[in-house]
Amino acid sequence: MKVRRSDRLIDMTRYLLERPHTLVPLTFFSKRYESAKSSISEDLAIVRRTFAARQTGILETVPGAAGGVRYLPIIGREEAERFIDLMAARLSETDRLLPGGYVYLSDLLGTPDVLRQIGRLIATQYLDQQIDAVMTVATKGIPIAQSVSQYLNVPFVIVRRDSKITEGSTVSVNYVSASSARIEKMELSKRSLAAGSGVLIVDDFMKGGGTVNGMRSLISEFDAHLVGISVFAEGNFDGDRMVSDYTSLVRVDTVDTKANTLHAVAGNYLTKNQAALAGLAQ
Amino acid sequence: MKVRRSDRLIDMTRYLLERPHTLVPLTFFSKRYESAKSSISEDLAIVRRTFAARQTGILETVPGAAGGVRYLPIIGREEAERFIDLMAARLSETDRLLPGGYVYLSDLLGTPDVLRQIGRLIATQYLDQQIDAVMTVATKGIPIAQSVSQYLNVPFVIVRRDSKITEGSTVSVNYVSASSARIEKMELSKRSLAAGSGVLIVDDFMKGGGTVNGMRSLISEFDAHLVGISVFAEGNFDGDRMVSDYTSLVRVDTVDTKANTLHAVAGNYLTKNQAALAGLAQ
């Protein structure tokens, strides 16, 4: 039965939103709605216009016989700024300060809304790069990895500090924790990452960068390559950071454990992605 | 500027899909699109019809001055069956069998598509119940908790077996691991769960139910209450299981470590939810 345009637009929107970065042939929609290809093309032009106007994402057209459309989720600059400002304000809340100058983040990293926006932000940054897997370390990086992986539509892999029988054979590396100067070990299931993969590292919080650096070694061990490093928050670090090329959404710039106050500001995300976000703005 | 119906339908669909279980007042849409409430009502009727026809979800209308619409994601029975069959087939793959009879699941639990469907399935089951938080234990339960939490639009909390300074004060319980008969400890950040909360427990794999039982004790310690228990996969267990009222999507029914084979079938999810899924089918 032929499907009306209004119904097609609704179902098409849902279908595309659930499959970011996936090429959907026009013939698929044409069959699904028993409608002519020309009608489907018109539908897609409307979806493209609305997605652009609302800064939901880019609907890319791939021409030719093997072509179709592909939905690339993005976040607009204004929405990105608003979210980052909100997060900086939330991270400045006094009751987040924990003994030792640590910051409590588990509430934010367990909230679907917050995770959705973090995922959109980080995915937007790597829009034009070939990413085959998102990597993080257990435990608190996982929600971020999962959200980014959803928007990029690629798998995520979890590096662990503790050995687990449910992972099968693993590859492990030793790394130096920059904060404590101790040597630690992390490992990743051998079958979880293919050689040649482009890997995006994400984590919740970076201080000295030791953990991120450990993941970088793991990537080499797997004959894969690093595409980028993105963290939700970075802290101040006295001394040489082991990682220099990364983006952070938020930066905790002052922690005063005596006065029991902390203060967070925007990280380097907006500055580093100025050109990219501006390019999306039309 | 007044927005055309086609554009409204697309943006409305996206807006609702991103906010499951959230009441959106008609006046919100009417303002956003500078359109009369009567037009918005007509739009929503079309969205409701398409969502129902494609078994995307239920668009519930809440009447009155404080009313609006609410999108409740569901999965249809056929799609649920297809997904469960696929997972049973995937879990029967010989190379998942690990020493000790464990089953490798990390690839599936790191794939956005798979997680999306697991989340939809479990969320559908608890459609009519008041859930305030989803609870799981680190590490492999986290992706499931996150996906369910997204579809129910409530926070998720992560119970840990290892103490972490970044969690602040915690409440801990001891529990007996049914498989190993050892006494272990698990803990949850004190501020992460409010008294009186309705809690849904989810996990990746259940054998004797010791871990799930530990989480149940934790819920009591927080003066919260258990609403349900859902696991992705259950294994066979010789002896008394500590948990009887749960649902599983898949059941690993034979593990032969000598012949190096394993076999998985559908869990009790479909049987337990027969009435609910049938009710959604019209």
Structure in a nutshell:
Chain A has 282 residues and is α/β, with parallel strands linked by helices.
Element layout with pairings:
The structure is a homodimer.
Chain A: H1 5-17, E1 23-24, H2 26-32, H3 37-53, E2 57-62, E3 68-73, H4 77-91, H5 112-125, E4 133-137, H6 142-152, E5 156-159, E6 170-176, E7 183-189, E8 198-206, H7 210-221, E9 225-235, E10 247-256, E11 261-266, H8 269-272, H9 274-279
Parallel strand pairs in A: 4-5, 4-8, 8-9, 9-10
Antiparallel strand pairs in A: 1-3, 2-3, 6-7, 10-11
Helix pairs in contact in A: 1-3, 2-3, 5-6
Can you tag this structure with a few keywords?
282 residues, 2 domains, 6-stranded mixed sheet, alpha/beta, DNA binding (chains A, B), 3-stranded antiparallel sheet, PRTase_dom (chains A, B), Rossmann fold, 9 helices, transcription (chains A, B), PuR_N (chains A, B), Arc Repressor Mutant, subunit A, homodimer, globular
Would you give an account of this structure?
The structure is a homodimer of 282-residue chains. In chain A, helix 1 (5-17) crosses helix 3, helix 2 (26-32) crosses helix 3 and helix 5 crosses helix 6. The model of chain A has no long low-confidence stretch (mean pLDDT 94). The first copy, chain A, has helices spanning 5-17, 26-32, 37-53, 77-91, 112-125, 142-152, 210-221, 269-272, 274-279; strands spanning 23-24, 57-62, 68-73, 133-137, 156-159, 170-176, 183-189, 198-206, 225-235, 247-256, 261-266. The first copy, chain A, has two domains: 5-73, Winged helix-like DNA-binding domain superfamily/Winged helix DNA-binding domain (Arc Repressor Mutant, subunit A), CATH 1.10.10.10; 77-279, Rossmann fold (3-Layer(aba) Sandwich). Chain A is 35% helix and 26% strand. Chain A is globular, with a radius of gyration of 21 Å. The first copy, chain A, is built from nine helices and eleven strands. Chains A and B meet through helix 1, helix 3, helix 5, helix 6 and strand 5 of A and helix 1, helix 3, helix 5, helix 6 and strand 5 of B.
